[in-house]
Specification:
With 113 residues, this protein is α+β, with helices and mostly antiparallel strands. 36% of the residues lie in helices and 19% in strands. The chain is built from three helices and four strands, in the order ββββααα. The protein has helices at 56-72, 75-92, 96-101, and strands spanning 4-8, 17-22, 25-30, 36-39. Strands 1-2-3-4 form a four-stranded antiparallel beta sheet, covered by helices on one side. Strand 1 (4-8) and strand 2 (17-22) form a beta hairpin. The protein is globular and about 50 Å long.
Length: 113
């Protein structure tokens, strides 16, 4: 019954997103956008988004996902804070154009075969 939590705030994303996982359920919350919900036992490849489903089970799981997420953080407040921090860092590095010109040391995506 343990809650697993993840959050992501990429400088190129329009919003941050948050994930909580418990039991068979995975709830993904996007600040300012509709949430997603997956039953991983029934749908391990996450092809059936129950985020807008109106079944009793989906409604209860969405409420539980939202409750578990908000026990950990206020996603809207964290989203605002993360993007404000990114703006400060981008400005300190000389702006978007200067940042775009930097070659970051990262693992490149695999080449399709």
């Amino acid at each position: 019954d343990r809650t697993v939590f993840s959050e992501y705030h990429d400088g190129g994303s329009s919003t941050g997103f948050y994930m909580v996982r418990w039991g068979d359920w995975k709830y993904v919350y996007y600040a300012g956008r509709p949430a997603q919900l997956f039953n991983l036992a029934a749908d391990p490849n996450e092809t059936n988004d129950l985020g807008r489903a109106d079944s009793g089970e989906a409604l209860a799981a969405r409420a539980e996902g939202k409750r578990r997420l908000r026990e950990i953080c206020d996603p809207e407040a964290v989203n605002v804070q993360a993007f404000a921090d990114q703006r400060r860092r981008i400005d300190a590095m000389g702006g978007r154009e200067a940042c775009a010109a930097i070659k970051f040391n990262h693992t490149p995506a695999p080449t399709p075969t």
